[in-house]
Write a structure and sequence with these properties.
Elements: E1 4-7, E2 10-13, E3 18-24, H1 26-29, E4 33-39, E5 46-52, E6 59-60, E7 68-73, E8 78-83, E9 92-100, E10 110-113, E11 117-122
Parallel strand pairs: 2-11
Antiparallel strand pairs: 1-3, 3-8, 4-5, 4-9, 5-6, 7-8, 9-10, 9-11
């Protein structure tokens, strides 16, 4: 079943921006870690960013290069991924995930997943 509901995917030109949203039930959102992953055709699912509910610095993949920002609103049980200066290589299906057990960028460490949203960046 769908545990987290995502929105905000779409198509943009290179250099443009998109903001992804993930809304979870309170019980799932209150897990300590939430994250964004992505998967391109023929590629493994890879971590993009992760956020700790109680604060502290977020984690980002090296390929983000300062272009993306993960944020959350605990009152709304929602986490966002703001993506700027998008590149064609950012094209992938993006997934929201929750409940980390292990390294933040290991997909197998998350118990709950959103349905995925396609992000397409054209050159």
């Amino acid at each position: 079943q769908v545990q987290l509901v995502e929105s905000g995917g779409g198509s943009v030109q290179a250099g443009g921006s998109l903001r992804l949203s993930c809304e979870a039930s309170e019980a799932i959102y209150n897990k300590n870690w939430m994250a964004w992953f992505r998967q391109a055709p023929g590629k493994e699912r890879e971590g993009v960013a992760a956020s700790y509910r109680r604060g502290g610095g977020p984690a980002y993949a090296d390929f983000v290069e300062g272009r993306f920002t993960i944020s959350r609103d605990n009152a709304k049980n929602t986490v966002w991924l703001e993506m700027n200066r998008l590149k064609s290589e950012d094209t992938a299906v993006y997934y929201c995930a929750a409940d980390l057990k292990g390294p933040w960028n290991r997909a197998s460490g998350y118990a709950y997943w959103g349905q995925g949203n396609q992000v397409t960046v054209s050159s």
